[in-house]
Amino acid sequence: MPRPIDPERHRARRLQIIDAGLTVFASHGYAGATTALICRTAGIGSGTFFHYFPTKADLLAAIIEWGTAETREFFAAQEGRADARQVLFDFVRHATAELEDERAAGFVRAVGGQVGDTGVAAALEADDRAVRLGLRTWVERAQGDGGVRTDLPADRLVEWIVLLLDGFASLVAGRSGFEAAREAPMLLEQTERLLAPTR
């Protein structure tokens, strides 16, 4: 009779592999991130790896999904706040803080090379939906209380916030010397200009 699965232990092991995968994808790219190297970094055997992730692409998608879960958790944690405008700025800070991780640039590049994989593409689409849904909720609330401009529909403002964040991530990944921590104040300044209520 098989042993019962300990959910906490299962979750911890899965996160251990996800963290190792993030590290290896970031430093070696997708092609160079062999499952053997990921296993060594995680301190596990290949059997354990394949028990959790059938393929390397499944692991890449799982890392994206982990980020999506964090985005949903961020927005869920804001419920009850009355300062909708500030929630939007807090999310921009949250997104840029993730890009301050030294692994972020390499990971963004690794993902960029795998957008043709159906599982990775689906994970990216789900992540984009979660970001847009969360932002739209708070943009609409901020428009309702006069905290942000109302001359553009909420979806259009969301589109531009996403454009700013995606462009910022692209520069972190693609331009040597573009550091998230140093450049984040400029991103916040541009977000402020974008959202400023019309006079």
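(the above was protein one; protein two follows)
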Amino acid sequence: MTAEQTWFGHPRGLTVLFLTNMWEQFSYYGMRALLVYYMTKQLMMSQGSASLVYGAYTACAYFTPIVGGIIADRWLGKRNAILIGGSVMAAGHFMMAFEPLFYPALITIALGNGLFLPSLPSQIGDLYAPGDARAGSAYNVYYVGVNIGGFLAPLICGTLGELYGWHWGFGAAGIGMLAGLAIYVAGQRHLAPQHRPPRPDPAPDVPAPIRFPRKTLLVLLAIALSVTVFRGAYEQVGNTLALWADAGVDRRVGAATIPMTWFQSLNPLLVMVMTPPLLALWRRRSATGAAEHPARRMAVGAMIVAAAYLMLAAVEAAGGPAHWLWLVAFFVVLTLGELHILPTGLGLFARLAPQGLGATTVAAWFLASFAGSLAAGLVGTLWSGTTHAGFFLLLALIAAAAAAMLLLTDRTKGLEIRSSDIG
């Protein structure tokens, strides 16, 4: 029997998916780093209107995968969905370089994203045999790929946009998307075989429909509702927090000034730095039988994010422009909380999916992100009508409410989920 070919202890296909996702995220976060600034500085939108557009766009980017996942599972297949979706997204990013195409470009990116986003992570599970202990950590490894792209994007796209013109930054995002597609095509031999969904059988013996176990469905619904609330606070990072970094933070270092978009690279950089020691800690806890249940781990993450916003509220209450180191400290705390909640939730949705509904179930995870992004856009409209300290306090309360909901899920009889559900 031929020994399995691995890279970094995992199947080689994980690296292909990792790199494909990295460049897709480069394109997404590169455009997102510029979006609010572009609307308020170039298109001269009011802050409230820009917040609503930002929230609607990010929401659509999470809503379209719900439909796209079903299309991939039933008709296109995952591979074709990624190729078509990625090509459409690349076109949308290049359209962003032209002001009259602003709204059509946003719609185009969201539509392509719908096919691409659920089909890529749903291929991770196909790389591992049932019971493979590496499967759980694979989603955290994959999440690092998200953040390498997110780290590079503000530095490259943001710098091009700020120094040479917004359209140069948007064009760089389109090139990143094409790079991701090229890697996916070149790495096909390392992925599990992708079969087109079977055509409907006209024979009278119709197979029984795939059904979710009731407990599994209730768990996923409870987690999704909690994450919806959580994202109302978390998604301010590219919205109102970006505006605060521009106007409320002293970004001077000697005679130089740190570009405002660079701070958006801190979160993904910290994900890469923090993920390995966190995984090692959780493995040790699991080995000693002290592993946290997934919902409890996610609740801890939401509380940590609440603490990050509470810190900003205190800094703002002290008065005067905040030193840029406070923004760095915020991202350190925020990222620690994020790593407890978002990869854990994605892993749950992917691993609890019934056979044949992988992309559809992962798409359902993005339904929570869709609703949360809409909520974040609405919450962001309060930025101009309240004190910044009061606004950050509100975000802390929202994150704390999500933590309470997750703890309730963990303690409710019949909804308990084990740490083994996330590996």
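Reviewer note on protein two: Confidence is low (pLDDT under 50) at residues 419-423.
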